[in-house]
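*** Residues and shapes ***
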Amino acid sequence: MPSFMQRPGTSGSGFVVAIVGASGAVGVELVRCLEERGFPVQELKLFASARSAGKRLNFRGHALQIEELAEHSFRGVDLALFSAGSAISKRYAPLAARQGTLVIDNSSAFRMDPAVPLVIPEINAAAALKHRGIIANPNCAAIISITPLWPIHQRNPIRRLIVSTYQAASGAGAAAMQELRESTRAFLEDRPYAHKVLPHPYAFNLFSHNTRIDADTGYNEEETKVIEETRKIFADPAFRITATCVRVPVLRAHCVAVNFECDAPITAASVREILAAAPGVKIIDDMAANYFPMPKDASGQDAILVGRIRQDLSDPSGRSIAMFVAGDQLLKGAALNAVQIAECLLADQKTIAA
């Protein structure tokens, strides 16, 4: 049974929850998700670097002070939600787990570790129950790309998947979001601007995702993450998938052009029918008004928006569909998914207790 639910005396009053990386864009959303979803928090502890120590965040009407993260920070903590980067996770997550704290980690540090579950609750919630103290939150582009595909895959297995992402500044953190604001203002005022966070000018520009390119494959690290993580989540190491990941000058919410081929012929109408009943998905597909998923509508929304659902005319077999999705990277792509994982564990405990 999940360790964070075994501590005596917590079941009636809630849990001691810690957020690591509380001052970051995802950390702020984690605080908000815990409050809005009514997660049973008895005490919330906020941790970040020394630079952010002393700042305050509001939770349930109280201003909580952020503390500097240290090795002793997890004493008495039931659940720790990490969003502070791989280096911090690699150092502190195993330490926290050894102390009996359940860690849900938003970095890439443990995603491909065979002993660590990689979980999207709408797809493989049961995998979370097999944890050994650490559960990994998938890559944001992977979550937004494949969550709407799972109910289709269950009905008519997908044999090949092509995704092209349009990723917002939010995926690179609060500093990148600020750089987009400042560089756009400078561009419009015809002022020079020296970019520091991202490798290329961001205002009115787009570029290949700012991660290292593998010289052998030609894929960048973000594309490799989407490919490898999809295979792990779908429990199919041979799943045929390719990805092209691009950074676009949008503040928040990623978009993805998705093209998939199924085992058997499939129609756009049947895809709409399947997705209409799918959890975590909302169809925005108004052809008459030419209105489809957009970042402005996905921002701040829990659901992943899906539209432009159409037959791929290049496939005469009728097995391929093209569609366009948009999802909030800070929510379903990060904070919300992490909180939902914790909720799944609580729901399982209540089922057993009943």
Summary: Confidence is low (pLDDT under 50) at residues 7-11.
